[in-house]
Structure formats: C-alpha cells, structure tokens
C-alpha cells in the first residue's frame, strides 16, 4: 500500500482559513461507504439523518493556548509549541529557533517567565519552568495553536471557535475538528430526537499534522496520544448495540479512542497512551458510522477514513467535494460516512470480520 495511493489535488483557495459565521452552517457531504453514493446537505440537517437508537460519541478534550513566544539568552527569537504538560513546571514541546537550543539553555517568555531546556529527544524538548507554572503562562500569553495550513496569526475569535462547545478536559494542542460544527441548539435537537450521547477524551497532539515520510504506508510509525474511556461509555456502547442502534463517532479522534479500547474484540474502559494506526484492511470493532472533516492528502487521517469506507469511494467523494467547492480541513466542511449496517452486532471479533466481509460483498 503506497503513500501516493492517498493523494488528491486540492486548490489552495479551498483551504478554510476561517470558520463559517454559524457553526452549523457548514456543508455536510453524506457518503454511503458501501455504494459510494454521495448526497449534499448542511450540518444543521444532521438530526434528520440520525435515529433514536443511535449513540453519538464525542471527544471532550479542550485545546490549550499552547503556542508561546520568547527569546534565548542571546536575544534570538524562539517559538514554543507545547505538546504535553507533564506537571506544573515540566512540559514536552516543539521549539523553533534559528539555532536549536541545547540542554541547559535558558529561555525567557513574553511575560518574563524563565525556563530551562532539560533535554532533547528527536524533535521534542523537555522544558522546565523556573518561574510561574504552565497553566498560568499559557493563560497569560499563550496563543491558540492553529494548524500550519491556516497560514495566518491567531485572532481573539479563535479562542472560542477553535474549541468545541462541549470541550471540558484540557490537554489538546489541536482541536477535534468534527465537533466544531455542533452548537447547543443542534445538541438539544439531537437529544429531543432520542439520540444518546457519550463523551471520551483523547488529547490531540501536534503529531496529527506530521507528514508520513515513508512510501510504504505499513512502515509508518504512528504518534502517541493520551486517551480515557470510562465505564459509562462502555455501557452506552453495549446498550446501543443490544438494541440495534449505530455507534457514531464524532471525529477521527473518537474513532481512535473507541477502537483503542476495543482492540481485544470487546470494548473496555481504560486510559493510557495509544498509537493505533488505522488504514485500509483494518476491522472496526465498535464504530458503525463517522462524522468527520476533510483531511490532508497522503495523511494518516485520509488512511483512516479510507479504511472506514473504501479508498475508491473516499477519493471519489473528495474529488466531488473539490469540484463542488467544499471548504477543507479544520475550519472547513464535514462528512457523514455510513457503512453496511443491518442493526445486528456480532458478539465476537471473528463473527464481526465475517459480518463486515459479507456485507461488503452484497
């Protein structure tokens, strides 16, 4: 399986630099993952495509204002992107400067806070604050870490729009962008229809934007992210399956969380690091449908959605979206991808493999 197999051409003007004025005003492309059929609508119509027995699973991570600016002792400019806060004083981060700082170097941030470079491991630095704490520093002078393809400075409005309305647990440095399309009014309508909701946590890291650097996809090493899935989510998933409803993941991060908790064939509560890599050929254990944004060419997220539907159907849908001038990436439009579903959930992984295979052959 080659990296070039997941390429598509995208005009630069279709990259969304700003969100729509209203969250739910974004467009919604519906893809039947079995037939490849595409339909067009808007996100505020999502409730019309849900059923009372469905379960929507959201990622409630909250984005940190994790981009910081400062100077080296020599006066050289430094840009820091926090990858993970380890404690009040220590963090793992990407550091950009004309010359990479060495262990022992001192840096000064915009608010005067001082920090020391403890070590460097690959592209990541271990940093220790000598004054103040990371939470206070980020709240005082931190910038929202907009993705690199949104090539503009962050603005005040991004502090609200680059968060989901249900964000709760701080720790991400990138938003779970499929959730950006939901507002309180739409969530209320979904609840009124009898659709259940559940919340998992997966702290999205900067690695989500790292390019795949190998030609053979199967040789790629996935970045690691922290996740948590509680017993109440497990109970809701199992209850949904028992009554013949669909488990609908809101975003690829929710997929990664649910599937990480289901790798042994049965979903279980837990937390920890996951480096799950989902590409065509993967058998989904828990997810029946997916709400997601449009992803970068040749990215691991393109591979994930191609595993969920098929590479052919995904690329055809993306090409149609380009022709129809959909808006792409984090602040862009969305997709609702469904797969073959009979309302019956197999009880074992072996049964599920044959169930999916027979469904796809129909």
UniProtKB/TrEMBL annotation:
Catalyzed chemical reaction(s): 7-aminomethyl-7-carbaguanosine(34) in tRNA + S-adenosyl-L-methionine = epoxyqueuosine(34) in tRNA + adenine + L-methionine + 2 H(+)
Top EC class for this record: transferase
Biological function: Transfers and isomerizes the ribose moiety from AdoMet to the 7-aminomethyl group of 7-deazaguanine (preQ1-tRNA) to give epoxyqueuosine (oQ-tRNA).
Subunit structure: Monomer.
Pathway(s) it belongs to: tRNA modification; tRNA-queuosine biosynthesis
Keyword Cytoplasm found: yes
Keywords per UniProt: Cytoplasm, Queuosine biosynthesis, S-adenosyl-L-methionine, Transferase
Major subcellular site: cytoplasm
Cellular location(s): Cytoplasm
Transmembrane segments: none
Family per record: Belongs to the QueA family.
Designated name of the protein: S-adenosylmethionine:tRNA ribosyltransferase-isomerase
HAMAP family reported for this sequence: QueA
Organism: Kangiella taiwanensis
Gene3D superfamilies in UniProt: QueA-like (3.40.1780.10)
Enzyme Commission identifier(s): 2.4.99.17
Keyword Transferase part of the UniProt annotation: yes
């Amino acid at each position: 399986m080659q990296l070039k197999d997941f390429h598509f051409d995208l005009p630069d003007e279709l990259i969304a630099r700003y969100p729509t004025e209203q969250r739910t005003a974004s467009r919604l492309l519906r893809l039947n993952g079995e037939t490849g059929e595409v339909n067009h609508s808007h996100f505020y119509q999502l409730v019309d495509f849900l059923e009372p027995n469905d379960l929507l699973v959201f990622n409630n991570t909250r984005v940190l204002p994790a981009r910081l600016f400062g100077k080296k002792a020599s006066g050289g400019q430094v840009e820091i992107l926090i990858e993970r806060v380890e404690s009040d004083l220590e963090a793992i981060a990407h550091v950009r400067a004309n010359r990479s700082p060495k262990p022992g170097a001192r840096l000064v941030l915009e608010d005067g806070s001082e920090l020391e470079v403890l070590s460097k491991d690959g592209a990541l630095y271990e940093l220790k604050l000598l004054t103040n704490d990371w939470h206070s520093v980020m709240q005082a002078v931190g910038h929202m870490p907009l993705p690199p393809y949104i090539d503009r400075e962050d603005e005040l409005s991004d502090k609200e729009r680059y968060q989901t309305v249900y964000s709760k647990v701080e720790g991400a440095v990138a938003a779970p962008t499929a959730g950006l399309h939901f507002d309180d009014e739409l969530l209320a309508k979904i609840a009124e229809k009898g659709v259940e909701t559940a919340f998992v946590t997966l702290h999205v890291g900067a690695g989500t934007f790292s390019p795949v650097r190998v030609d053979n996809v199967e040789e790629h090493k996935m970045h690691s992210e922290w996740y948590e899935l509680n017993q109440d989510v497990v109970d809701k998933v199992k209850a949904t399956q028992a009554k013949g409803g669909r488990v609908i993941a809101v975003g690829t991060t929710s997929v990664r969380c649910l599937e990480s908790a289901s790798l042994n064939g049965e979903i279980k509560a837990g937390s920890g690091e996951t480096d799950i890599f989902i590409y065509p050929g993967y058998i989904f254990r828990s997810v029946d449908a997916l709400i997601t944004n449009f992803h970068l060419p040749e990215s691991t997220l393109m591979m994930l959605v191609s595993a969920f539907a098929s590479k052919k159907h995904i690329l055809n849908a993306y090409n149609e979206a380009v022709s129809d001038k959909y808006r792409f990436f984090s602040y862009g439009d969305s997709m609702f991808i469904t797969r073959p579903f009979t309302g019956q959930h197999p009880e074992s992984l072996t049964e599920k493999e044959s169930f999916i295979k027979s469904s796809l052959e129909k």
